[in-house]
Amino acid sequence: MTDIMQTEKKSKLVIGLFGFGVVGQGLYKVLQDVQTADATIKSICVKQKNKPRAVDSVMIKYDPDELLQDPEVNLIVELIDDADAAYEIVKTALLNGKSVVSGNKNMLAHHLKELIEIQRNTNVALLYDASACGSIPVIRNLEEYYDNDLLQSITGILNGSSNFILTKIFQQGWTYQKALKNAQELGFAESNPSFDVDGFDSMFKLIILALHGFGTLVDPEEVFHYGISNVSDHDILYAREKSKKIKLVAQVSKVNGKKFTMFVLPKLVSADEYIYNVEEEYNGVIIEGQFYDKQFMFGKGAGAFPTGSAVLSDITARKHNYRYEYKKLNFFASPLYTRDITIEVYLRYHDLVDLSHFDFESISEKYTGPEYNYVIGRLKLDNLHKLKTLIRKLNVFIAWTGKIN
User: Fold this and answer.
1) What pTM was estimated for this model as a whole?
2) Which of 24, 284, 313, 346 has an alpha carbon within 20 to 30 A of 300's alpha carbon?
3) Domains of the chain
4) Which sequence positions are flagged as catalytic?
5) pLDDT tens digit sequence for 63-94
């Protein structure tokens, strides 16, 4: 009996939690309600002092080392916004022999190569299902179910905040600014709204999914991403006239079987597409394979409890000694990343000078009006990538039509 009790004691997770914002508080409440988790939060490290918090003050710490050096803490859960600070926390924890659960997609997208190597050397684990798509277990499915070389593409709405904003615009006729403010008030938007609305958040998540789906880690600087912050009434009207909606979509897909490409763009979505009816703060992910066609996963992608529940799933998995095997990275010939593809886009503009920056290979539709103009045509993704900094300064809006070759 004594041996069994000692084994149970060793298996119990004692958590050092970094961050007590929306997700951190959600996790705290979820852990209180789920008695089978067999995990307790011992300490919570925060930055702001003298801020009222609904936890025992003894748990609150301000020095990261109090958690990182605590021998009783055997799992670090990192849920902070600051990517640089998160990197230092996660790296130090892994080097100290403590496994980690992280939700920081920005940090992961920039540092996964190094952190994977540290895991190998220290024999601990870094889990981060909660970093992509909230409550949808996409990463673990890519690791376990789609652990073969048949995967063709991953397409989806990966950011609940931007989807919430677009839903309010299309369904209730709200302005972009009103919808954004409401998303922030509800805790759906990140502390820096640009991460959500300009496609950074979706891009970081897509990089993580591409690693587990295709076995190649791409530098964030090499991925084109463009968001919804410049969407106008003209773009909404155009979409409605074509019986479409605008959704911020992340796409990674194989090209000719040996390469793959990826980007984040608003997309003109038709009613026959799975993600057409994904509304509010929900995410929707389509996984397409060579023989199993399309699989659709749907769930909440933002908010305290959905993301907190995803973190809990990582915690429970770690209790059972689960770790990512990175099967595509370790056991398959990884495809090469390329931007040498052509996509068809809708480009709304006001000034011919703005239009002149875009080197269209062909234009299939063109409209010139007193208030705005647009063209629909084919562009090289690599050319768009070269313009990615300039585009954000122009009075234009770009949306992908869905055509790619």
Assistant:
1) 0.94
2) 346
3) 2-131 (3.40.50.720), 141-300+326-404 (3.30.360.10)
4) 205
5) 999 999 999 999 999 999 899 999 999 999 99
